[in-house]
């Protein structure tokens, strides 16, 4: 198996591996593989696959819809969604979203790095920025949306009684959703608003908390 | 009420407030106050308190014990603990902790900023770094410890059946706890190990997830 220049630089210049050393590989489909270095330099190299070390761990069918915020907090949301086990990450543009575009490739790289760090072998797809209006218009109503509704401060609605199946979590930008968006979300039959406690959470914190609650009630943390 | 130079710079140079403008104040004890600018310059100023706008929202009796990791992730843990509602934050030194000291004042400032951002009026105290061994030796066994045990990968133990009362959450550094520490923790009657799902979480993610689970099972998110 040939390596890219980036991969070779990391393995042979940064990690200083040599022939016979072993590495863990994953391709996002089959799980984790063990491979052995055959030869390598800063510019390229060859690994030999020795066998499957662990099967692929796929997350439950949970998506995350979030409004991009400041750069480092957006990176953070993608990282945490990958670690906590989301299958797909969809940045959405809301009325109060400042960003007009995102660097999809950078965010996808963050999702990959999070999966590598956490020994996960599944890398969630990060889609490009789309207007929330368009996403909701094209939505398949069989996938329910758990909406972190910041106006519901107070005890959180428990997720114990909600229907299993495909879900998506929706968290807004700093400043929340506009009144128009809130009316629209409240009127959609597939949207369930949920409170995330009595304190106002930042968008990145709300994403972590909502994914955790969903995973422990309906996902693979049970 | 006189202002410090930092506060005056923020209000009058950054936010450009002038006489008659209103600001929200909190002292960490009584809640949120409304005040009016009497006079102000970059170097100082005077505010007049008009009255209490919201009562103090105190978090439940939950502490967070965590091992300091890289700078920005340590900052992040403190920020998230303040937002999600911890009453006290205790950095602890474990066998696999690289840090020999922390900047307590910087972390305390992070906790204050998180409380300000989130309209909370309670600022958790961040203590100085202490060895985990010493903390456990002096521990009051009436406060139970919820231990994010990374060897328990798999479905999370539900917190539904655990005893209410004062609790602390304990999360380890990157690399987890040593075998000696693990044996010791398992032997302590006031320690409850908990799994945080089938994926290995970074320390900062584990802290967010464990606080969220505790808040929704035993805290003020119910």
What this model shows, in words?
The structure is a homodimer of 222-residue chains. Chain A is elongated. Chain A has 2 domains: 5-55, Beta Barrel (Ribosomal Protein L25, Chain P), CATH 2.40.240; 62-217, SPOUT methyltransferase, trefoil knot domain (Alpha/beta knot). The first copy, chain A, has 222 residues and is α/β, with parallel strands linked by helices. In chain A, helix 2 packs parallel to helix 6 (203-217). In chain A, the strands form 2 sheets. In chain A, strands 4, 5, 6, 7, 8, 9 and 10 form a 7-stranded parallel beta sheet that branches. Chain A has a 3-stranded antiparallel beta sheet with strand order 1-2-3. The mean pLDDT of chain A is 89. The first copy, chain A, has helices spanning 5-14, 71-84, 104-117, 132-137, 179-187, 203-217, and strands at 22-26, 31-41, 44-55, 62-66, 88-93, 125-126, 130-131, 144-148, 167-171, 191-194. The longest helix of chain A is centred in the last third of the chain and has 15 residues, at 203-217. Chain A starts with a helix and ends in a 5-residue tail after the last helix. The first copy, chain A, has 6 helices and 10 strands, in the order αββββαβαββαββαβα. Helix content of chain A is 31%, strand content 26%. At the A-B interface, helix 2 and helix 6 of A face helix 2 and helix 6 of B. Chains A, B: Its main location: cytoplasm. Chains A, B: Residues 3-43 form the Ribosomal RNA small subunit methyltransferase E PUA-like domain. Chains A, B: Belongs to the RNA methyltransferase RsmE family. Chains A, B: InterPro entries: Alpha/beta_knot_MTases, PUA-like_sf, RsmE, RsmE_MTase_dom, RsmE_PUA-like, tRNA_m1G_MTases_N. Chains A, B: Its EC number is 2.1.1.193.
